[in-house]
Amino acid sequence: MDIKACLLTTAWLLPLVGFAVEIFGGYWSHHAPGGRFRSRLAAYISVGCIGGGFLLSLTALVFGVTDFDLSLWDSPHHASASEAPATDALAQFAVADEAPAGHGGAEQAQPGDPDAHEHNHVSGRLYELATFGKIRFAIDYYIDSLTLVMFTMVTLIATCIHVFAIGYMDDERTDEHVDHQVHISDGSHLHRPGRFYQFFAYLSLFCFSMLGLVLAGNIFMVFVFWELVGICSYLLIGFYVERHSASTAANKAFIVNRVGDFGFIIGLMILITSFGTFNFTAYNDRGASDQPGLFEMVRDHDGAVHVDETDQGRVVKFHTPNGSDTSIPYWLLVTAGLGIFAGCVGKSAQFPLQTWLPDAMEGPTPVSALVHSATMVAAGVYLAGRFFPVFLPEVLLTIAYTGAITLFVAATIAVVATDIKRVLAYSTISQLGYMMLAIGLGGWAAGLFHLITHAFFKSLMFLASGSVIVGCHHEQEMTRMGGLRKKMPITAYTMLVGVIAICGLAIPWTWAVPKIASGWDIAFSGYHSKDAIVATALTYANLNPIHSLLFLAPLVTAGITAFYMFRLWFYTFAGEPRDQELYDHCHESPWVMTGPLLVLALFAAACAIGGEQGTLFQLLSQSETHVQDVAGSAINLPTHQDIAVFHGQAGIMALLVAGLGTLLAYLMYCRRTPDPSLIKRQFAATHEFLVEKWRFDELYDAMFVRPVHVVASWFSGFDHRVLDGILHWFARTGVTVSGWDRRFDEGVVDGIVNWVAEKTQEVGRSLQTVQTGRLRQYVMFIALGVVTLFVLIFALFPET
Amino acid sequence: MDTSLTNYLLIGAVMFVSGVVCMATKRNGIAVLMGVELVLNGANINFVAFSRHTSLGLDGQVVSLFVIVLAAAEAAVALAIALNFYNNYQTIDIDRGDKLQG
Amino acid sequence: MNDQALFWIFAILAGGGAIGVVILQDIVRMAFSLIISLGSTAGLFFLLDADFVAATQLLVYVGGTLVLLIFGVMLTASGPFRRIQMSSGETFVGAAVGLLFFSVIAFTVIDVEWEKLAASHRPVVDAATDETGSTSRAIGLRLVGIPADTEVGVHSNSGEKTGYLLPFEIVSVHLLVVLVGAAYLARAKRHETSEATGGDA
Lengths: 800, 102, 201
Hints:
The structure holds 3 protein chains of 3 kinds. Chain A has helices at 3-22, 25-28, 41-67, 76-80, 83-88, 145-168, 196-215, 219-237, 244-275, 294-298, 330-347, 356-359, 365-374, 376-386, 393-416, 420-440, 444-471, 489-503, 525-543, 549-573, 580-585, 591-606, 615-621, 640-671, 676-682, 684-691, 696-768, 775-796, and strands at 122-132, 135-143, 177-183, 189-192, 306-310, 313-319, 325-329, 506-507, 522-523. By secondary structure, chain A is mainly α. Chain B is mainly α. Chain B has one domain (5-91): Helix Hairpins, CATH 1.10.287.3510. Chain B contains 3 helices and no strands. In chain B, helix 1 runs antiparallel to helix 2 (29-53) and helix 2 (29-53) runs antiparallel to helix 3. At the B-C interface, helix 1, helix 2 and helix 3 of B face helix 1, helix 2, helix 3, helix 4 and helix 5 of C.
């Protein structure tokens, strides 16, 4: 088995082992140092597991770089040979014995080197679970550079967050934790034992699930782990389960996700019935065979889809695993793609299923950082990227529009939010919209590039906000904060790093020097990734002018993003303190919490050095699948050459807009010109609308929740009146019948017995009169008796 | 000499029946005892008649001797009982002795 | 012929006396009628060649038992008890029963052919009376246990011609018992006779 597969499998299973140990912490932590509730051992175990996972992933990444013959720098060969990647990138899906066509480059693997793979992915089967007829359920893996990068990113961020959580969840390390947001009936606050080890157990389980999702080699395994991360999210959001808001939020998250999963299942069903397999590609490592997977069936070597017009309508033709040619109706494949995407919509909180993510902020801040900004919500984007070859152009268009709507809506709501975590939550939704938009536009590498950079700076910002919250004694409203940068400098300036990263501000010196690629501008990571997306959008809009909205939306929203992010920073860390008491009591967080902040700040700043010519982007683009436009779909996907033309333009426009947004935020919230409160009054109706989150919650309540309540009340009434009525009727009938039975028993049966007894007594009494006691009568009877006997004998037995 | 056996038997029957009727109908206790004597005598006549006219021989006479003796004994006891009855009830009317009435 | 006439005389007397006992109401007259009846019975016995039995009858029955009865009559039948009336219904019933009973017995008696039983045997009693003119010796021997009309020394186990020694002894004891019993029964009471306690008697 390939070394990368071994490493990644181990990295994947380590947190599961950690979970299995930690979940029983209630039993063994008696013996741990500190005692049952005060022990940190569970945290150390989970940090150890995920840290080990990070090291293994890093090792696997190094191996991957050599094995996949990845070029870490954009060498001139690659830049000029623009045609070459187009054709031989498809060799990635070629069967093992086919020689790749000129997959050359400066770093070329020795031909015949047994360690070198001709293609850029490793896929194999770990364990076959079951076979039901044609359908095989297996645990398998698909490792390409995207997988390696995702693993590294997830484990690194998870490690930082685990360490942060040791400090953040410190107040759970007691056997009597007072929850100030839960009121018991007598008015006091809830006292409960601390749940420190449980938190880390859930975090470990989450890491296991997320890594399993990333590693998965078939769409069904993705679904299984999809649900698992949903469960972990539910458990973690509802960590403070006694709080009504938290438990409701957990329910909402799970149910809204489930709505998306409904579409996912439809997609799964269509895929399995039409294609007969769940696998992405043919296995080339463990369990190698030439059974093609979904990618190979839908797209051929050139990345084209075979569309045909038959008398049943448009169909897509493909080769089945047993070699025959069949087809699937075009719209059925579109539906399958939309179904899978529906799952992504739910998981990544896209419009219209975005309502759960802001409420998910009820969970502890480390959870928000890990699950709801960097990893779980990114799983939707990851799947959209992974499943890219199977998506037909209509599906991609839908993805793009969904992403566009989402990013705009969320950004506008974030402008008026006052809870620090809510702002970040809407910011997350908006950025996820960016990623979806990018993928929908065909900018595969750009979208995933943004996913990685976003993970770093968003988790950084969440952890910083967590540090603020803890430092301000669980205060989350920005309107009561202010001027905190003097008291919490590390938090403030790491947060600033994150804010600059997300806004995409930069010093674009390379514009002045034409020879050097724009990737060398001085900027934090978000600038490069957002730049890539905007460039793709501009190219797309030029190629398909009818969809120009798909460029305007991200451009405008970039400005809005800059505005609200700097608003957040100025509100919290700059200006004068609005609540003096809060300001006096706040303090910087301990090293266990600020350390991860610094690490993440470093990555947020530097992970995308070199932009599109840098390491990260090159790593990702090696896994990019070339897709050709489908004939008759009226959509032209931009290619790299097209993007290169519009790249500069897009960059200028994006930077201008971001700068405008920053300036406006500075003026409004630092200089108070114009005063935000005046503007709020001026646009009161709009403000109201935005504060109510575009009224989605009310809409869904009226559309879905109330009808369900009505139907439930019908059923409840039916159960009460009809079913209970039937039961009561049976009971009453039983009682009546038994009453009849009793009367029969008492009247008839007892009557018979009594009558017999009475008659016997009467006969006895009447015979009593024979015994007169008079001697004469007795003698008379004797005489009579003898006479009668004689007569009888003579009469009956006449003797001669 | 040879008066028929039947005649004697009839006489015995007459005495016997009279005795029974006497026992059955008389209210005087002593009258009942008289009835008993009549019955026994009727039986005695039968015995003796049979001993004379059949092969019973002297056995019949011996038996009637016994009957006589026993009748006497029984009469003695019965009389004692009757006298006791008279002492208790101040009357010899046996209809008064109906304490065993059911 | 003499036998016949004597028989009829004695028969009528015996039967009439018996019927008289039934019919008469006065207890003393009933006693008298009984004497006649029993006396005539003795006569009948004589006619049947049972001289010892007849004598015993006269001695024991008439002279003993009836005297006893008359004592009883005398002791109890004083005043209003001499004549106790019977209702006519009872009289009728008694008469009916009597007649019925008699007719049954008479029918039986007449129906049986006694000659068959009598013809096969010579009356043994003739042999006994021829010797001594009375049956007393024969009866006495029988009571002791030696049947006189058979060979001495031969005792058959068939039970036909055996002695009556055992019954004789039993009767003797019986008489003793009766004596004691009657004496006890008729003893003088220490307390007042008005207390009629049945158990004490």
